[in-house]
TrEMBL record, chain A:
Keywords: Antibiotic resistance, Membrane, Transmembrane, Transmembrane helix. Residues 28-227 form the ABC-2 type transporter transmembrane domain. Its main location: membrane. The chain crosses the membrane at residues 38-58, 126-147, 153-174, 181-201, 238-258. InterPro entries: ABC2_TM, ABC_2_transport, Nod_factor_ABC_transporter. This is ABC-2 type transport system permease protein. It is a multi-pass membrane protein. It is found in: Membrane. The keyword Transmembrane helix applies. It holds the Pfam family ABC2_membrane. It comes from Cellulomonas iranensis.
Amino acid sequence: MSTTTAPVASRTAPPALRSWASLAWLHARYQFLETVRVPIAVIGNLLFPTLALLFFVIPQDAITSDPAISTAAVAQLATFAVMSSCLFTHGTGVAEDRAQPFDTFVRALPARPGPRLAGRVLNGLVWCYLALVPLVVVGAVFTAATLTPLQALGAVVMVAAVAVPFTLLGMAIGYALSSKAALAVVQCTLFPLAFAGGLFMPPEVFPRWLDALSQALPSRAARDLVVQVTSGVDASALAVPVLLGWTVVLAVLAVVAVRRDEGRRFR
Amino acid sequence: MTTDTAPPVLVDHVTRRFGDVTALDDVSLRVDHGEIVGLLGPNGAGKTTLLSLLAGLRTPDAGTVRLFGGDPRDPASRTSLGTTPQETGLPDTLKVREVVDFVAGHFADPMPRSEVLARFALEDLADRQTGALSGGQKRRLAVGLSLVGRPRLVLLDEPTTGLDVEARHVLWQALRDYHADGATVIVTSHYLEEIEALAQRVVVVGGGRVIADDTLARVLDLVSVRRVTLTVPVGAGAALAGLPGVHDVTEVPDPRGGVRATLVAADADVCVRALVERAVPFHDLEVRGASLEEAFLSLTSSAEHGASSAAATPAPASAAATDPTATEVAR
């Protein structure tokens, strides 16, 4: 058996690390595989926004017959789909991985943390796009929602842009909490943020105080920008600074959570 | 930077504390190319902490750790290192071949998957999810993963704990084969049998320090102590500590009168002969092999006294056999 490869001792120089890109791709592939092997986790995540569209939007003719309102309705549920994928993949996903002894083993493999993190982000992004597939299909078939090719391209780019702050929020939760606590916190964060951000009901029907509060939330800012890109309704001038501000805050929280976790477990 | 001439492992005056507990206390250790070293010690002795420093998972509070001359915290120093996940630590939903491929993806020149599976008799399980493997199969895969990168240094933390005899022998043979290919291997265990099967050199740690570092044969002598238990009248206990080869005496009152004393002795024969010669009024003599734990304790205390009397010259005949009440339980 031991004759099938060259004896270990005959090697001279220590081998180099594998390239950043190949390691990131490796981690993305295996994280995707691990996620897809637990179908219930995937299906729930993929179907919830589409079911919301089917039950709450499709029955209302006033919405489905108007192209602009339909597009906005699909766009805000799409924002929810991205937010939910990010929070679940990174919030509960990271917390669960950290509880696994295999995580410690992987840390001892010859790879820097960067490619691992990149692989994780890539996997999260893939799930964002996958969650949009049924939603967009149902929206296109059953509502008057339409996109020009340029708007469609804009929407594809917006998915990645919206994923940034919510990926960071997910990581802040996942690296700071145990897996049970992370699941609870993700749910307690996701639904209030979605509701108050106008992802379930359009902000036009909000009372004035809620609309004012809503303007300060990352979910509302993301929603308004997605609606602007897809249906041409201009977002408030605050949307971009609010989303960027939250991105900075959440980035700081995520970095603090990662550092603290390293310090606690691996110092 | 790693260099090829640097030893695989160089630990220099390393101290590591966890809160109030000192896991490693000024430990120095050098392991050269091609050695197969057993790291032996009771639970909590500091073995796992030492391995986690070598794997770059932790940093020492004081001193330096070098892996092929490089800092193990730098991933580039770990391209020639193989470690193993804990038994429970495999991703349940991935198949055996996928876990092997995932680990192989971290190395420039990995061992082919078929070879890894063959070395650990896992060929038939390649398409099984790891969650469906038995304990022994998981353990074989876990140890197999340590060799996937064709490392020049393999660290194994209690590789066969909880395995049956057959599975244990499969693993030992696989590790001996890999060592024969030119690798350096460090294996921790608190089973003497495992260290005997694998190691040529044995490092005994206890209380965070290196107590003994010698060839397998020498360390086996050191830890082959016996427990001699006997009942003596109250007050006669003081004479027992002075008997030749006795490291340690513990006494408890015997409900039937007198004191039940337990001696830990390097050489039970010499000890019993002295008991008889000095006319110690004993009865109910029992002699049995000490557990590894007891052997370590005696080794630790003799190290503290600065004496190495544990390696006393063996007596030619078994004195214990002259006493009809004596029973000797072989280790």
